[in-house]
Amino acid sequence: MPSKRALRRPLLAGAALALASALGAVAVTAATAGPAHAAPNSCGFVFDDFNYSSSADGNFTGHGWTPRGNAGGPGVPGATWAPGNVTFPTSGGQKVMQLTASTNGTGAGTRHAEVYSNQKRYFEGTYASRIRFADAPASGDDGDHINETFFAISPLNGDLDPTYSELDFSEYLPNGGWGEAGPINYQTSWYTYRNEPWLADNTHSEQRRSIDGWHDLVVQVSGGHVKYHIDGVLVGDHSGKFYPRQTMTVNWNLWFIDLATHTGGTSTYVQQVDWFLFARNQVLSPAAATAQVNTYRAAGSTFTDTFDTAPACGGQSGTSAIIGNGSNRCIDVPSSNATDGNRLQIWDCNGTGAQQWTFAADGSLRALGKCMDVSGGGTADGTVVQLWTCNGTGAQKFTLTAAGDLVNPQSNKCVDVQNVATANGSKLHIWTCNGASNQKWHR
């Protein structure tokens, strides 16, 4: 899809996040409007039924959402991003969040809409939202290059930032755009980009058909794969370097790519969002995600956030041993020697400091005052896993997923016991994740 390389949205959507950071993130409390009834032993959920009076409703912003009001891209230069273009009408007996965008064919007469989360905290787990896409405007002439979206994004820290993360769960262009005829819908996973001169490094899936109407979007981010579903059907599976490398915000926006095809007076388009669900560190099937939403609704819950209060799957906090499923032995620093370069191994669990690993807030795994490290920041199968002075690089970031994979996001590979060995002293390296028992761990 060469024409999509002209897309400028990543940097400019990131500007909204930068503004939010400058203003200070709004604290999202672990509160529930109505009974939560979260699943037992859950890893934390965020659920919102969007039962608000307006974008200025204190509960809306207090629950962690910002209706964008700052100027800038993406889309038509000179357009306004209007908080008032986010409303909460009733549709089908349920309150929905509605984004409205309109244009009279001029930049000054163009209004966009966006909602984004205040906290940059979303990473692995299941993202789900029920969205109503529209092929035609609510009023006025049809044919505009409108983009109807749902995505997660991080800031870009400089050109070709290797830690940049963005997942476009859906970008629906009913009338086309970027040189493509519509209708067309994209799922795009980004590695990085440079704004000037433009260079994009991403992969995408697409559906060249109408998706007018209500659809359930479910995206599973786990074990090095991003799996995109529409109404229970897998439409994309992206992996490798396109797997996200840091936490992101969640966003919806509605905007005009350009005004090249506008005709007549003012045309107004709407996009509606029925609900949002995030299951932290959990892989939910599309059916399970919908069932979880129905459970909340049946209990009368319109909002819940247990992200920071429920136990994290895989134990993404605290200090403990990390035990191999295949060997029932612990990840160990040989001889309790904290010298840089000491290659890690498995050994009978003994409760010593050489086997006590702390999941630090920066994503590192620490023992004896140093960090688990992929030697030389390598990404090839067989690269040694060792102990090294903590330095904050991607070589020292690890995530223990709900599936039991200990993943280094930089390489998108798993910590693996060499040769599927189970004996004391068997060494660790990284290897392509394959689900084998020598790659499965628990605390």
The outline comes out as elongated
| End-to-end Cα distance | 44 Å
Unreliable spans = 1-42
Helix content: under 10%
Question: Could you tell me the mean pLDDT?
Answer: 88
Strand residues, percent: 35-45%
Largest sheet: 18 strands, mixed
Q: Kindly report the CATH topology of the largest domain.
A: Jelly Rolls
- Whole-number total of structural domains: 2
Pairing-aware structural class of the strands and helices? mainly beta
Record field, number of beta strands = 33
Task: Outline the structure in words.
There is one protein chain. Helix content is 7%, strand content 38%. By secondary structure, it is mostly beta strands. The strands form 6 sheets. The chain has an 18-stranded mixed beta sheet that branches. Strand 25 and strand 26 (365-367) form a beta hairpin. The longest helix is centred in the N-terminal third of the chain and has 15 residues, at 9-23. It is elongated and about 75 Å long. Residues 1-42 have low confidence and may be disordered.
